[in-house]
């Protein structure tokens, strides 16, 4: 039974390789319910791969990942992991929202159609109910007047806010963000971060891969610093960012701040 005291995410000893390249080398990650955890580190450190294992967009070679009390991507039988059928993976994944670096909106759908596609197709909601929810979410992200436009008619920041609304329409218990502002022009970053701050304030559990150190310092409960596929340092966000103990964390922050 899932309890409030149980972490939303528990990843233990996660390994992942591509050929001879070991990208994750025994990573542990715990995310408490209602908390925001930011993954920081240099490119190639394994942050995005770790994020993608949390909803089984990437399989793992060893270890366990549990979200809200359920194994992700696998079932445990006789002490061995067996990968679930794709249908069951998709069912469990539907409660984990994901926002990508490059939006991944359907270009031939309007903003409204992009948002109601998942709730009607996967959650089997009526088109009417899904539309009411979609319009409410568009208002929440400041795009109530953009419902009938196509993605190509929006700025990058607006597209990313639509992507967040689309993920929220699936009523997720966990939101994953993979560098959601890195593809945006600098002047558009703030509008996306503002929506993410609002989400954090509302109590949404979030794991965010980001290079926005200011956002991490202000909004994250915890920061996890990764390098070469391992967790090098973790702790309270302001403590790690303002007073890093590990020399590699310090060098990274000195280079980006």
Task: Provide an overview of this structure.
The chain has helices at 47-53, 86-93, 111-121, 127-140, 156-168, 186-201, 213-219, 237-242, 247-256; strands at 9-18, 21-31, 36-40, 62-67, 70-71, 74-77, 80-83, 96-99, 174-178, 205-209, 222-227, 230-236. The chain has a six-stranded mixed beta sheet, with helices on both faces. Strands 2-1-4-5 form a four-stranded antiparallel beta sheet, with helices on one face. It has a two-stranded antiparallel ribbon with strand order 6-7. It is 36% helix and 27% strand. The mean pLDDT is 94. It is an alpha/beta fold and 257 residues long. It is globular and about 50 Å long. It contains nine helices and twelve strands. Strand 6 and strand 7 (80-83) form a beta hairpin. Helix 3 packs parallel to helix 5, helix 4 crosses helix 5 (156-168) and helix 5 (156-168) runs parallel beside helix 6 (186-201). The longest helix has 16 residues, at 186-201. The N and C termini lie far apart (43 Å).
Sum up the structure in keywords.
alpha/beta; 27% strand; six-stranded mixed β-sheet; 12 strands; 9 helices; four-stranded antiparallel β-sheet
Layout of SSEs?
Elements: E1 9-18, E2 21-31, E3 36-40, H1 47-53, E4 62-67, E5 70-71, E6 74-77, E7 80-83, H2 86-93, E8 96-99, H3 111-121, H4 127-140, H5 156-168, E9 174-178, H6 186-201, E10 205-209, H7 213-219, E11 222-227, E12 230-236, H8 237-242, H9 247-256
